[in-house]
Write a structure and sequence with these properties.
The protein has 271 residues and is of the alpha+beta class. It contains nine helices and four strands. It has one domain. Strands 1-2-3-4 form a four-stranded antiparallel beta sheet, sandwiched between helices. Helix 1 packs across helix 5 and helix 6 packs antiparallel against helix 7.
Length: 271
Amino acid sequence: MRFKASMAALAALMVSTTAAHAGVIHTDWEKFKAGRALHHLSVDGQKAMQDVLVARDLLAQGKTDAAIPAIYDAQKRFVAAQKDNRRFYAAEDQLQLSPKHPVSATHKPATGAITWIPVGGEFILTETLAPDKKAAAQQANKALKAGQNTQAQQDLQVVGEDADFIIALAPLEQTKSTLYRARVLTEGRQAAQAKEALDQLLDSIVFVSDDFVDQSTNASAAGKGKAVAQGAATATTATTPAPAAPVSSATAPVTAAPAAAGSDSAKAGAQ
C-alpha cells in the first residue's frame, strides 16, 4: 500500500510538472509570435508613415510651413527603409490582399513587380474576442500607430492567437515619387494640392496577413542565398585554370610568349 501511495504521489507530481512546463512553453511561444510579427515591420518605414500623417494633418489646417519638416523627415526615412532587410519584391496581384482590410475605392493598383516596405501593422478586432483581449488589441493598435513596438508586443502576448495581425505595405518608388511631389507643392504653399498628394500616397497602401509577409521574406532570403551561391560557383569556375594538355617536347614548336600590353618589352619592340 505504501508503494502504491508513493507511485500515486509521483504520478500526480509528474502531471503537475508537465502541465506547468506546457504553460511555460505556451507563454514562450506567444512571446516568440509577438516578436516575429513585429519583426516584419520596417522601423524607418513606420516612422516615415507617422511623418506623413503629421504632415497631412498640418496641411489640412493650411499650415504649410509646419508641414515641411515632417515631409523632409518622411523622405529621409523612406530612403533609409529601402536598405532595410524587411522589404521584399513582388507584383501587387501576388500579394493576396487581406479581405479584412480592403483597399480604398480610389486605390490604383501598382503594375509589375516592385519593392514593398512594411510600414505598419494592425490587429483585427472581432466580436468573439474576450473583453480583456479586445482591450489589449486596441491598446496594441494605438502603440503601433505611435511607433511603440515594445508596448505593442506586450499587448500582443495578451491577445495571443485570437486576433489576426495584418501588415500595411507601401510601394517604395511610388511613395518616394508622391512624397517629392507633396514636398514641392508644400514649399509652393499649395496646401490643398499637397494634402491631395499625401492622400494618394495613403491610398496606395495595401494590407496583407502577417503569415504572407513571413513566407515572402523567407522566399526572398532563400532566393538571395541561392543567387549568391551560384555567383560564387561561377566565379570559382572562371578563375580556376583548366589543366594544360601534355605536349611532346620533340614535336612542339617553340614560340615566344606575347608581351603584356603596356610592358617594357612591348615598348622596346615598338621602338
